[in-house]
Automatic annotation (TrEMBL):
Similarity field: Belongs to the D-isomer specific 2-hydroxyacid dehydrogenase family.
Pfam families: 2-Hacid_dh, 2-Hacid_dh_C
Domain called D-isomer specific 2-hydroxyacid dehydrogenase NAD-binding: residue spans: 106-302
Keyword match NAD: yes
Residue ranges annotated for the D-isomer specific 2-hydroxyacid dehydrogenase catalytic domain, each copy included: 4-330
Keywords attached to this entry: NAD, Oxidoreductase
GO MF annotation, one: NAD binding
Keyword Oxidoreductase attached: yes
UniProt-recorded name of the protein: Hydroxyacid dehydrogenase
UniProt superkingdom: Bacteria
């Protein structure tokens, strides 16, 4: 079976070659389009990333294709109706970074709780002194997790390892899960009132837009910290800045910002097209939160670990090999 990979980096090529040594594989660094589809018209399986637009026109130029393996969770770059009409199987990577994002969440929490950023700067500027660097223990503190999906669950497990009290808010409650991990479901209002650390792990949509806003941010326990590794629009930036100024919130760890360019999923950040069309650097330079010593900002990097990126490829390889053996996994169409 002939397989063609598009939007492939050098390290991905090496990994995929080793994993698919029994398959006839072709690699292309560019994205798949109607202009270059003829190059792979003999291929039965096509693997793409987020910038390849698999339109009906592209599909028509691939007469032998039987399966499309996108190396992303989303698949809206693929004309699903055209695939259905041709009986083409489409598979995706449903998940790859739950623990990765959870670990980054705690990296931000620990950076704030132990004043890591200030400590590093102080050593460089003043020498080996601990003046003004008193932190606080996580043990015994209450962490409020907003959104108990896969990432939120990982955060809860890590928090229990620190001997923290865990409360959670989610529109869907899994009482068995709560008992197994050891956390308590509460309302969003109660979570804001009781948590020493609030961390957000939920998708961005109309219902979650400004979930934390001027209308409820004053409910937050005075001196609490807030962490956001999900989507910037979940927090109203103006309300956050005001709450930091008033001391309602003692600090924030943000991997995402409200003004950040529209991102469908984290993998999109790795694409060449995204870096060429979205000037995040300028946006960050103009962002008022950058100048606050009680705020740590990372560049939407929570998902970005070697293992997470390898899991994308690992799942893609599994999708291809399984299909080749007559079994379809992670199928979206």
């Amino acid at each position: 079976m002939k397989v063609a990979f598009f939007e492939v980096k050098d390290w991905e090529r090496e990994y995929l070659t080793n994993q698919l040594n029994d398959v006839d594989v072709a690699f292309f660094s560019e994205k798949l389009s109607a202009e270059n589809a003829d190059m792979v018209k003999e291929c039965e399986i096509i693997s793409v990333f987020v910038d390849s637009q698999i339109t009906k026109e592209v599909i028509e130029k691939l007469p032998n294709v039987k399966m499309i393996a996108t190396r992303s969770t989303g698949f809206d770059q693929i004309d699903m109706q055209a695939c259905k009409e041709r009986n083409i199987t489409v598979c995706n990577v449903p998940s790859y970074g739950e623990n990765t994002v959870a670990e980054h969440t705690f990296a931000l929490i620990l950076a704030l709780s132990r004043k890591i950023y200030q400590s590093v700067d102080q050593v460089k500027e003043e020498g080996f002194t601990i003046s003004g660097l008193i932190g606080f223990d996580l043990k015994g503190k209450t962490i409020g997790i907003v959104g108990m999906g896969h990432i939120g669950q990982h955060v809860a497990r890590i928090a229990k390892g620190f001997e923290m009290n865990v409360v959670a808010y989610d529109t869907k409650q899994d009482k068995k899960l709560a008992k197994k991990i050891g956390f308590t479901y509460v309302s969003l209002e109660d979570l804001l009132k009781s948590s020493d650390i609030i961390t957000l792990h939920l998708p961005y949509n109309e219902k979650t837009h400004h979930l934390v806003s001027a209308s409820n941010i004053n409910l937050i326990k005075k001196g609490a910290y807030i962490i956001n590794t999900s989507r910037g629009g979940i927090i109203e930036t103006a309300a956050l800045i005001e709450a930091l100024g008033k001391g309602i919130i003692a600090g924030a760890g943000l991997d995402v910002l409200e003004e950040e360019c529209f991102i469908k999923e984290e993998a999109h950040l790795l694409s060449k097209d995204f870096s060429e069309t979205c000037d995040i650097k300028t946006m960050l330079q103009n962002h008022i939160l950058m100048d606050r010593k009680d705020v740590i900002i990372t560049p939407h990097n929570a998902f970005n670990s070697k293992e997470a990126l390898e899991r994308i490829l690992e799942t893609t390889v599994t999708n291809i090999i399984s299909f080749n053996k007559g079994r379809k996994v992670n199928m979206v169409s």
